[in-house]
TrEMBL record:
<dbReference type="Pfam" id="PF00149">
    <property type="entry name" value="Metallophos"/>
</dbReference>
<feature type="domain" description="Calcineurin-like phosphoesterase">
    <location>
        <begin position="38"/>
        <end position="215"/>
    </location>
</feature>
<dbReference type="InterPro" id="IPR004843">
    <property type="entry name" value="Calcineurin-like_PHP"/>
</dbReference>
<protein>
    <submittedName>
        <fullName>3',5'-cyclic AMP phosphodiesterase CpdA</fullName>
    </submittedName>
</protein>
<dbReference type="InterPro" id="IPR051918">
    <property type="entry name" value="STPP_CPPED1"/>
</dbReference>
<dbReference type="InterPro" id="IPR029052">
    <property type="entry name" value="Metallo-depent_PP-like"/>
</dbReference>
<dbReference type="GO" id="GO:0016787">
    <property type="term" value="F:hydrolase activity"/>
</dbReference>
Length: 271
């Protein structure tokens, strides 16, 4: 697998604006203000079962850190954005679920390229398909599958995605979660152009959250849509810290990447 450096990722994004901590000029919300503000958290890449790593500890550390964040200021939900287990350790998916079931708020998962089970097995375990929409009171979450039972890197079902975006409730923030970034295909350089077009056509998608590349923890803007990466909370490689992303939504959105081991913010932005 080719790993993109921060510079390579930004080169692929081409003309996209790098987001600063300040809201970009002219970047008004494409959706009306929700009735209430809310807060949620996104983590990815736990890789339970990876050899020569304390992968169980990575999960318990995540649970503890989420509980701590929830105690500081309540979270509405958590999304774990793929690669729950490592390699052929799919028999550990129920164990990963048991860990995540101890989270203090509702949570949702996407399938990563390491989560190599059939759609039927996935649905039996988690209760929903690998492509799934969650219509919460405060937000609509689209969980887009970007792999299969063999671990292939896929762009995702563009027709299904477009259908769900068109059907989404007006005036409710819409967030897209996909494990493998649409910015590349198997070569590590070519964007998934059909997915890219859907995102460009529908600025109602407030943010797209990616996992997969453990070295990326940045945020950039594509028009009015934030493209966000959250590094990893497990595994043997990636950023030198383990962390997750926190999002706070009100009239606009504020997000920061958080190193939960050293308990500090790594970067932040508004969108």
């Amino acid at each position: 697998m080719k790993v993109l450096s921060r510079r390579e990722a930004l080169n692929i994004l081409g003309g996209l604006a790098i987001a600063s901590a300040c809201k970009p000029s002219g970047g008004g919300d494409p959706t009306p203000k929700p009735d209430t503000s809310f807060r949620f958290l996104v983590a990815s890449d736990g890789h339970l079962g990876e050899v020569n790593t304390p992968s169980d500890q990575y999960f318990t550390d995540l649970i503890s850190a989420v509980k701590e964040k929830h105690a500081e200021s309540p979270l509405r939900f958590v999304v774990v954005n793929g690669d729950l287990v490592h390699g052929d350790n799919t028999d550990q998916l129920p164990k990963a679920k048991a860990y995540l079931d101890t989270l203090p708020v509702p949570y949702y998962v996407t399938r990563g390229n390491h989560d190599r089970v059939t759609n039927d097995v996935w649905k039996k375990l988690w209760g929903y398909d690998t492509n799934h929409v969650v219509a919460r009171d405060e937000a609509t979450l689209i969980l887009l599958d970007t792999s299969d039972q063999w671990g292939n890197y896929l762009c995702g079902d563009t027709a299904w995605l477009k259908q769900q975006v068109l059907a989404a409730r007006p005036g409710v923030p819409l967030f897209l979660f996909m494990h493998i970034p649409y910015l590349r295909d198997l070569t590590g350089t070519t964007p998934c152009q059909d997915i890219q077009q859907v995102i460009a056509d529908f600025p109602t998608i407030r943010a797209v959250f990616h996992g997969h590349d453990h070295t990326l923890d940045l945020g950039v803007l594509s028009g009015k849509t934030a493209l966000l990466f959250d590094a990893h909370f497990g595994s043997s490689w990636g950023t030198p810290y383990r962390g997750f992303r926190v999002v706070e939504y009100d009239t606009d959105a504020y997000t920061y990447q958080y190193d939960f081991v050293n308990k500090k913010k790594v970067n932040e932005m508004r969108f």
